[in-house]
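Q: Structure tokens for this one, please.
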Amino acid sequence: MRPSLRAAAVFLVVCLWAAAASAQKVGGTDQPILFTADEVSQDRDLGTILARGNVEITQGDRILMADTVSYNQRTETVSASGNVRLLEPSGDVLFAEFAELTDELKNGVIKQLRVLLVDDSRFAANEARRNDGNLTVMKRGVYSPCAICKEDPERPPVWQLKAETIEHDQEAKEIRYRNAFMEMFGLPVAYVPYFSHPDPSVKRKTGLLAPDFGTGGNLGGHIRLPYYIVLGKDKDATVSPIYTVDEGLVMSGEYRQRFDKGEMMLRGSITEADRDVTENGVTETREDQIRGHFHAKGDYHFDDTWRAGVDSRRVTDRTYLKKFNFFEQGEDVLNTNLFVEGFRPGTYGAANIYSFQDLRPGSRPDQPLIAPLLQYSHMSKADSFGGRMLVDSDFRYLIRADGPTTQRVTFRPGYEVSKYSDTGLVSTFRTSVQADVYNVDQTANPAVSQDVNSTVTGRLLPRATVDVRYPLVRSSGAVRQLIEPIAMLTAAPNGQNPKNIPDEDSAVFEADDTNLLSEDRLPGGDRVESGQRVAYGVRLGAYGSGDGRTTAFIGQSYRLSEDDDLNRENAIEEHFSDIVGRIEVRPSRYADIRYRFAFASDKVFEPRRNDVTFNVGPAAYRLSGSYSFVSASTQFPEREELGLAFTTQITDHWSLQLTTQHDLAAGRALRYSGLVRYQDECIIVDILGARSFFQDEDVEPSSSVLFRIKFKNLGEVQTTTG
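A: Here is the predicted structure, written as tokens:
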């Protein structure tokens, strides 16, 4: 048909259909209709309109396309045949060979149905019936989110569900099956008389999540069946019963809620199980002990300045997390922190309560309680010289059952100003006066022998510091180079650590590149680095135009005076510090290495500490690792560990990861593990095997295998609240 004739056909059909719609209100509404076709005819006696060739009907949010469309004005029925396509408001597309639809294309019967959902999932059925544009009932249907093989379209997908009846309820956002078989690679593997799961548009819906199960380990094997519960738009929960072979049932779960100005999370577990306890070298089995853990975290913002919150972790006993597989890296010491804090430009204030639970072997059973720790800091606006007034203050109340109870008040006003010369020299001058007052009470446990007496004591520590930097930068082709010499001199009176002040937060000191240029390298506030010290070093860098870069720093400090108190406690060196530094090399995005070091000042190249981490290779074959060495000290024995991980993407879908961790100082392996993963657009299969050599009371060396299978859309949802 020529364009002019096609346009005339369009105009005629629109006029005829509009007249019919005006008289009969197609589908009982006044929805406008846009209708185009290559040719059209009308039978006034039968009350039908027939359109052929590239027919397209738009009514409301739905679009119907077909080779041939017939409209019966008396029954208000649209019959479409040949390459039928129906575009839904949801984004789903229905394909068929024949469709008979009524009521604004919402109801009807469809033959040889194919449906493409918004996430590329697919339905197929010999016959389907649509009700009110919402419920699609398919007979002898198939559902799969897996892509069809391009090389062999007849090959069965990775997995699919075949059912006698499939119902897609778009209003409830649910897909329901009756008499369903699951097939994997074309082979039936499971049957259920009834089954349902959320449709692809669902982000959150109550139902089963992907389970996992494993064999071996300290539990003898387990299976976990998480069940997700939507409690409202702002809250949800997950209940995860875990059945273990050796220890019975473990109940675990999580609750989350988001508020207009805050959020909260509660997570934990509980079980009744035996526990091995070692006391005085004798191991005793205590039967049917209540064991468990919890983690509570949340915060609430009162306004733009103030917020309050809590982050609390606790466990019933020292080995529970590792035995029952709840342990996470870095959880050797569990903290509880309640806080209120406020932020304003240049000002910070906070009130904190801290308690601790140390899970490391040989740790002190009694841990301190800090209630409260009050802090206030302020930095003024710059004055006419460019300097700023600084104020730091705090109050700490620390309680120990097996040691002294202390109250500490600290007030430290100061002033800082920086200058920039025309030659590029950057100099900073800082001065401060720190006043500390301690009330030490030994009466809480007078039977404990202490070097510290009950007393009121304190110190007054004035300090002045000057540091100078001279960055030199030049460009050589595409590379920018940096050389920055750095020097610092800090001075304070000697002997500012009275022995009557107990050391609670400064006991562990380690000179490294992060604190070399600090005025006071000691952590905490119970010990201060008094006396005079000069620090010096150089920062180097080479930066390419792309991802490549190399940076380095090396430095050392020298104490001009001795501090008998600090030297007696082995808290700090006498004169020269270790030579410390770091080197970072990243030639491209496929390789990077970071090296941190500390060498003894009196023995050249004798390492005190070496830390190396690296990543080499693309995603197809990537090697990562870490090496750590710390020489023996009065506080810790020598430590040396090596960890390696190799990851390879064997094919587009198969990957492999191998890891190992060794204690080189003890000459033994700590852990081996291997992960095999298959992942495509519709399924993830994990097989994780591990061998752990860790031993502590009721945690024994063990081997385990964990299996995880996640089917896309089958109970797996985005579990974000809000």
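A few notes: Residues 3-24 form the longest helix (22 residues). Confidence is low (pLDDT under 50) at residues 1-29, 717-722.
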